[in-house]
Specification:
This protein is α/β, with parallel strands linked by helices. The chain has 13 helices and 12 strands. The structure holds pyridoxal-5'-phosphate (PLP).
Length: about 375
């Protein structure tokens, strides 16, 4: 099987499996106790936090482990706004975990504003800036679109937002961007940044929220005071260890130049075969959204699967919903959206397997059209 649905989830690296197994079998003790075996487990957590912080360009004290990015995103919207006053701005390109969190605030009377996105899938900068005023409390912008791979210039946008409204906090959903764009979080200037480990070769069920040093955020969970009192609950030591091992391995394997060249080669191949690339400029090398004319993505996905290739259609997390809010916001019509597949690469996807998969996808499309 050639697996090209890595934006949905990734295969767990062997080193991450090993790290998780060691934390379950050998270092299984309570990390919050005072006896030596437990203290050593606590040290494993802090070593993992340091390792992750160094890999993503953050300080260890800025990282709080969560169960997933959905949790991190929800946390920012439920507790991350000072005094819960002022307006909140999101873009039309956000993942459902940000969008639905914002809609929750809206249903409670908060002034939630949505900045449009361009045909290329990035936020419309001037429209965004027009929405910001002195009462803006939070602006949340996705770093890399999970639908198209479009990359928002978060560093520049954060500067512009803060110069227009210094009290506004900036959050970025960095699930598809962490490590993959090569930008250290500290360079982005954001206050909050959400990430998820299962997009980088670690298991599902572990994520983080970056909270800029000096920012006071209300706890998400109250209880035993773990994670500096911000997220109580006994830490998921096996998955935290796996997260650290996976990020290090991912950074070792990743080559931004190579992945970008491979994505470009795939684009050329698909265009030569009559397909349309959705969102062409400023894209992550890891994600490619292709509209394949006269073919329904769901059928294509299944036939490709039967022929040994796994690809996505729309967002994995919104797979049960009809239509596609983000692609619609980019101006695609229903027919175009229906025909969109998402091809997403891993750090170790080879050129041979990607190009072989592309051929199989086109053959599958031709097979469908001939039925
Ligand atoms: N944000 C983005 C951009 C995503 O792509 C995803 C998952 O695909 C999430 C958030 C949710 O991440 P998790 O599965 O860790 O909750």
């Amino acid at each position: 099987m050639i697996y090209l649905d890595n934006a949905a989830t990734t295969k767990v690296y062997d080193c991450a499996v090993k790290a998780a197994c060691a934390a379950m079998s050998v270092n299984f003790y309570n990390p919050n106790t005072t006896y030596k075996s437990g203290v050593l487990v606590r040290e494993c957590i802090e070593n993992a936090r340091n390792q992750i912080a160094a890999s993503i360009g953050a300080h260890a004290s800025e990282i709080v482990f969560t169960s997933c990015a959905t949790e991190s995103n929800n946390w920012v919207f439920s507790c991350g706004i000072k005094n819960k006053k002022g307006n909140v701005i999101i873009s039309a390109g956000e993942h459902s975990s940000v969008y639905e969190s914002a809609m929750q605030l809206k249903s409670r009377g908060v002034d939630v504003r949505t900045a449009p996105i361009t045909r290329d899938g990035i936020v419309d900068e001037s429209a965004l800036l027009n929405l910001i005023d002195e009462n803006t409390a939070l602006v949340s912008l996705i770093h890399v679109s999970n639908e198209t791979g479009a990359v928002n210039p978060i560093k520049r946008l954060t500067k512009l937002i803060k110069s227009k409204s210094p009290r506004a906090l900036v959050h970025s959903d960095g699930v598809q961007g962490l490590v993959k764009t090569g930008e250290p979080i500290s360079d982005l200037g954001v206050d909050y940044y959400s990430a998820s480990a299962h997009k980088l070769g670690a298991p599902k069920g572990i994520g983080l929220l970056y909270i800029r040093q000096g920012l006071n955020v209300a706890p998400l969970l109250y209880g035993g005071g773990q994670e500096r009192g911000l997220r109580s609950g006994t830490q998921n030591t096996p998955y935290i260890s796996a997260f650290a091992a996976a990020v290090t391995e991912f950074k070792h394997l990743a080559n931004i130049g190579e992945i970008t060249r491979l994505r470009n080669e795939l684009c050329v191949f698909f265009v030569a075969n009559g397909c349309k690339i959705i969102g062409q400029s400023q894209n992550s090398g890891y994600i490619l959204c292709v509209s394949i004319p006269d073919v329904k993505a769901e059928i294509l996905q299944n036939i490709a699967h039967d022929n040994g290739v796994i690809i996505g259609k729309g967002a994995a997390c919104s797979g049960s919903k009809r239509g596609n809010r983000v692609l619609s916001a980019m101006g695609l019509n229903a027919k175009e959206i229906e025909s969109c597949v998402r091809i997403s690469l891993a750090a170790d996807t080879s050129r041979e397997e990607a190009m072989e998969a592309a051929k199989i996808i086109i053959q599958a499309a031709n097979q469908i059209r001939s039925l």
